[in-house]
Fold these 3 entries.
Entry 1:
Amino acid sequence: MAIPKVMGTEIEYGITVKNDRDFDPISSCVLLVNSYREDSTAKILWDYDQENPLADARGFQVEGEKYTPNQQENIARNKTLANGARYYVDHAHPEYSCPEVTNARDLVIFEKAGERIVELSRREANRVLPPGTQMLIYKNNSDRKGNSYGSHENYLMDRRTSFKQIVEHLMPFFVTRQVYAGAGKVGSENRSQPCDYQLSQRADFFETEVALDTMVKRPIINTRDEPHADREKYRRLHVIVGDANMSECAIYLRNGATAIVLAMIEDGAIDRDLSLRDPVKAIKEVSHDPSLRHEVELQSGRRMTAVQLQGEYLEMAQRYATGRELDPGAKEVLAYWERVLTALERDPLELADQLDWVAKKVLIESFMARKQLDWDSPQVHMLDLQYHDLRPDKGLYYLLERQGKIQRMVTDEEIERAVHHPPEDTRAYFRGSCLRRYGAEVFGVNWDSISFGIGDEPIKRVLMAEPLKGSKRHVEELFRASPTAAELVKNLKS
Amino acid sequence: MKILTTPRHSEQEHLRFVAAAESQQQQKRGGGDGGDEGGKGSGKGAQKLAKKGEELKEEMDALIDEIDEVLEENAEEFVKNYVQRGGQ
């Protein structure tokens, strides 16, 4: 029986400072992240002791140096938020990792809350920048000059499921889900075939099928084995193949459909061999064909379009769902998945109000027609970038949303609440609530631990190896009985 | 009546874009789960259709005007300078 698909996303944002000739991304990121002020979480460390990004899911440890910053640098680069998220500087990008959630709809809410948090800090940061300059942030994945930055998804999986099975059954799904999850891009890069417009921001950057790397020679399936949970029981599938979506519908279906397919893999419910002859080639072919008519080649010699291949997964999922208790919300995901594939088959333009790549394409083509521009025009490239601009008054995605040309999946009130409050049904609730209640005494945090420094006592680390424990239901009573951090630690020990 | 100067296929896309948004709003109002898009252009007379087409065109024009207002000036310089360090 598949385990609940606890999930989350990590978004690296693009950053620049307009009119600043000496723009330095790292100091700009540090300024940005530190411009987000939340009560009492300013001096908390990120706990690197628990991290191990060099462990490989295929069962070995890769040589390399583990990153551990000194205390001052640690605090300057890392913020843990009261909504359970981590907001930090990763290399030369600001990154927001949302708290753990149990379903795709909550994922949309908490990923969108991240956009607001970054935007709030951007506005604060701009107050201290020299007049005439302005910090700008983009939720996309490429500068269109061959540099890419990621948006990663994470899913909790059962350790007993072999990694080989995951790779085999996931590869064709990952190559083709961009038909709804692509964020759209003008042109191509990283030495892939020239094109006017493509479905995905990221497809051009995948050069191998399976590997541990995330920054060079990127793999379609990443093998990082860092569960941030009980490693005997769980793995965390670290997905690097996706785009940073603006559209709520695309975020919802991207995570929702993936979670269902992963549960099916755990339950051995994928009974069709859909292996592709050349996944690395196919992911680019699919991306470069907005007509969705291109047929990819399977190992078996069969050929089918990306939408048809997704349809195969959908059919298996519908059969899997029959008479079975699924994760909350999974039935709604299935229904929406079917509607989207049906519309894509008929005419992708029907989804101009739901999917990023279609919305952006229609917007750009309309603009081009009116202004007599072609795909090489700088204004067209600007439209592509500005679609992802986080400023509510300038970002073109938000403009479409404001004009009612984009369907919503969640409400502004839900997103606003998620800026300040953690999800209630995972350990993120315990993490976020501890920061809110005992912030001054929280010493360090990681996904699976939180440590307290109370007076002169030695640091006490509370381990959270179970992602579903620490929910409101589990700890509400404990919090009520623990007005102070000292009492919390005492009550936890007893 | 105004004469359109945009290429034919793009003009059609304008119309479809807005039509999709409109039909979606209708779905939202009905609270239904959508899917079926029957009744498109169900023959209420050519005049009415032409009027509708014109309204849609105006709506799209308004959107493009608004984009014009917010689009970064000096696009060429801006996109040239937008260079990121590679991330994950």
Entry 2:
Amino acid sequence: MEIYNLLSSDISAIFITLKLALITCFFLAIIGTPLAYYLAFESKRSKSFLEAIVTLPLVLPPTVIGFYLIVFFSPDTSLGKFFIMLTGEQLIFSFYGLVLASIIYSLPFWVQPLQSSFEKIGKDTIRTAYTLGASPLDTFKNIIIPLSKRGFLTSFIISFAHTMGEFGIVLMVGGGIHGKTKVIAISIYDHVEQLSFGKAHFLAAGMLILSFIILLSLFYSNRTRVVGIK
Amino acid sequence: MTDLYARVEGKVGNITFNFEHSFKSKGITVLYGPNGAGKSTIISAIAGFSKNLKTTITYKNVDFESTNKVPAYKRPFGTMFQNPILFEHLKIKDNLEFAEKRKKFSINSEKIIPKKELIDHLDLVPLLERYPEDLSGGEKLRVVLARTILTKPAYLFLDEPMSEIDIRYKAKLLIFLKMINRKYKIPILYITHSLEEISQIADELILINKGKKIDYGILPEILNNKSFQSLIGKFESSSVLEGTVIASNDLLNITTLDINGQKLIIPGNPASEGNNIRVRIRSRDILVSPIKLTSPVVENELEGLILKVEKENNTAFTEVVIALVDSKTNELAQKIRARVTTYNYQKLNLNENSRVFVYISSVSIDRQAYQSN
């Protein structure tokens, strides 16, 4: 009976974690891809400013990001008020607050691999497509995306894994509410705090194996030659 | 007749552009100038990729750079950049199809080259199923050329297209370019550094230096202008003569040309009787004599009149521009430039309007320097 209860709580954490990582990657694809494109091909100095902002989550301590997100997500801010108006729920300690936070702290993990992949394709390739009569959207769809398949794969895998593993920010913004914002990383922390090492082992080993498989598949795919792509 | 007008002003790097030209809508125009003269920037600007430059590009009375700027992908030009790029994820046939599917610029059906003809002429059949990374530099270039032409351009811009092509194939490609220019009436704007390429395909030359047009005119004239001579340096100083094949000796491997009634023997059999051929002759390979030699040691003796004398300061040389005399009408015809020492010039008592004989060894005539028209 006890085992059944614990498993159901952990299964919900696993489910929430995967859902969070997938939804975050979905929004990252929408927000991060144009951003990576802009950073790859814009030559204006002003892009450095944007580049620095996008990269900030890489260097800031998670508690600093978490702190500011709590401040911005609070029901007193216009963002918080807007969210309450929209859903009747407050943004902080909600799953959507968690999604928003994840998008922010995983942004550099999406943007950077893709940006370098776009840079490798180069401006000349894009110009060539234009001279052949392809519009910018046409060029993006039929030249850039197929040529940066590997960049997209890397961005997805790294962002997914990073979102899955984040602890500090998720705890601060989500509060670790069971069935709502409690992800695997927090479950493990709770188990360890309650000295339930067996349950912690179960989840920790799962994360370890999953992360290893993810990285292995990434590096393996980088070695195999995808037809037509150098 | 002119459809395309371009004005390019502004600063890129340390070149200040001040270029203006109305391009002819037929023939092959070569953009010539030293490295860093801004040739590629001008072509890019016309194609729609100017940055930080003030440009006016008008095509058929439509201003491409007005407030309603026409973006590069809507301009009716086929542009081949200096560093030609194939899409690595597409097979060669799909690279070609990419262009074919998109631009349909030329409404004039006589300007459209059938794809099959293009593929045959450029020997692309064995490449079609391959990926770009398996192609050599020269093969890539041929594919890019075909792909550019498949956009049915109203103008074709080629930026040093022959740089990676070996000499034997080059001649073939130049003939091909001339064919599509003549048969399908696609005007070509061509950038090159090679005098060989110029003498073979240029109808007109635009000379560019430091972002400015310094001279413009039809090929034989420009070659004799001081502006051109100063750009290429004295060592390469040369002239182009055009003549009709009147005899061809397969046994001895020589061809005789009629140049305004005078004969010129060139090595090889580049074309059959009745065809026109251009020959480039270096100024330093010409001997000038005021009297007819009784037993000339070289194959060719042409008669002419000194039109212009350019004595060089601080060198041993003087260059003379000689107009050949038409043997039938006795009128002055094509011009040829000879380089002599000032010492000999004075000793032979040469002067403007002197009647002279020009001696040219057939050995000095480049095989690569001629081509049928």
Entry 3:
Amino acid sequence: MTAAVAAPAQRRRVARIGDGLVAYIGFVPAIILLGLFFLVPLGIIVCYSFWETINYSVVHHWTFDNYHYFFSVTAYVSTMWATLWVAVVATALAIVLAFPFAYWLSRYVPRRLRTPLLVLVIVPFWSSYLLRVYSWLTILGEKGVLNWVLQKTGITNHPLGVFLYDRPAVILVLVYLYFPFGALTLYSSIERFDWNQLRAAMDLGASPLQAIFRILVPQIRPGITTAVIFVFIPILGEYLTPQIVGGTGGVMIGNLIVNFFQAAEYTRGAAVSLLIAAFIVVLLVIFRKSLSAKEAYGA
Amino acid sequence: MPSAPAPPAATAGIELRSVVKRYGNQVALRGIELEIRDGEFFCLLGPSGCGKTTTLNLIGGFVPVTEGEIWIRGRRIHELPPHKRPVNTVFQSYALFPHMNVRENVRFGLKMDRVSRAESTPRVEEALALVGLEDFGDRMPAQLSGGQQQRVAVARALVKRPAVLLLDEPLGALDLKLRQRLQIELTQIHRDVGTTFVYVTHDQEEAMSMADRIAVMNDGRIEQIGTPEEVYRAPSSRFVADFIGDSNFFAATVESGVAVLGDGSRVPAAAGEGPATLMVRPESIRLDPGGALRGRVVQTSFLGKHVRIAVETGAAEAPVIVALHDPSALPAVGDGVGLAWSTGDSVVLEPEPA
């Protein structure tokens, strides 16, 4: 009697598990790809960071020395702080520039003109990253466009070298490189905003700025967070831009990693890489809450 | 400007003086003269594109006037930005702030005015009670029905105690039953707070059921201003007669109380002389074997509260519509009938331009 009642329920459960498996089949290629080319290498790097390099070869001897070494060298620690600072400033500038662009595009530009404008934002991606960075040398360099203009207009009478090979140059180029990510991400979240809300806010006595910061910004917070993540995290790992336009004054943590690996100090390089990775994980955990808008709106 | 115009009489809640609005070459409003009394429930009624929403936006300050002046309670306000006007708006889309709960939505306007929390809290609760949402303060807008969201929008606007409340088709998104209920609620709220309501709608029934007075607008002009009864019983133009309620039109020549129609029949008509358009409401027409206007029934429709009969005549292009409330003696389709009405039920309008 009991069995007869239980049987259909059991069959239903089996069927449900089967359905579940079918639903997950789509993930298999991605899981294989991720496992093979991300998780396994990550595991290797984790191991490396706790091993030792002796005479240019990795010795499987467990130790914290690599981490200890990094924090014992003042230049490395200050480079780490400088990297954070550059990333924060460049991200802030990129977002601050991207916000008015996205705002203007989604509020005032007619729909048919938006796609061409968005394509314009993406156009830089059609040329190589390296080319885009190198071209800044021809703008900021001593024989570059900027110096040419300054001399032609009589503002200076000799070429200035101050524009290149320091952190400001790095920040400028990073802002240029990552602006499109910020602009596209912000646009996609502002685009859905109901502009009547701003009118309502102003109708209720808010000034235009108050309306933007109290009504629009809180609602696109997930978009802003996404934009910050998309810009900040890649900048943390940047090494070509600081190398090309930053020179010795613009060194970032990515350059340290490259140097370690080029000097065959794989275990120290691995440790620094993991430091960045750990920092990013902490960051994502902090940001996790503000990524979900649904929770906040009680929808 | 050397001579400032005299401020309007104290009883005028809102006054629009020769207000013109152009968008580039396009004229949206062609010289609006309008006086809305303090505390009045006033409807701007018209088809889409007639300028009623533009008029509302000009009062609200979302759109600048091209020419003319707007006064509210003796103050010229058309140069002030929206947030400096004693006016609040209920938007068609409600435009509630989805990231704030109901209470914070209602409080927002007071916060912008730097009203202290101690003062704003009772006012917020009072506004919520006014619209019957005192138990919903902690809900998020997404958790409310359309009708409730609408009420929040009203409370949010009224909590600021504006001189004028503008309502832009606020019931447009709701279904008929709910709309009728909220129409009653809105008129009750209006009576409770005594604020001037300016209500934009394209729905003539809505305007008729709520408004103290209606301005019927067409093509950037006000065609007629009057109480619902006035615009219904004495429309000033064919447009108004056509837009409000059902109507029958006849091209006619009027002479001393008699109108001669296109088929030669002589029917009763109100005062007027010469060529005219004669308008008679369907419910004013009765079937009368002795009626001067003869025709043939082409359709009878049972509509619940009345029976609608369409009668083909030689006097009008469209079949004449008759609304019968006594369905006992119904003619059949194809029957010949006579139509009659009393003089007072006919309206003589300008003739159609040839």
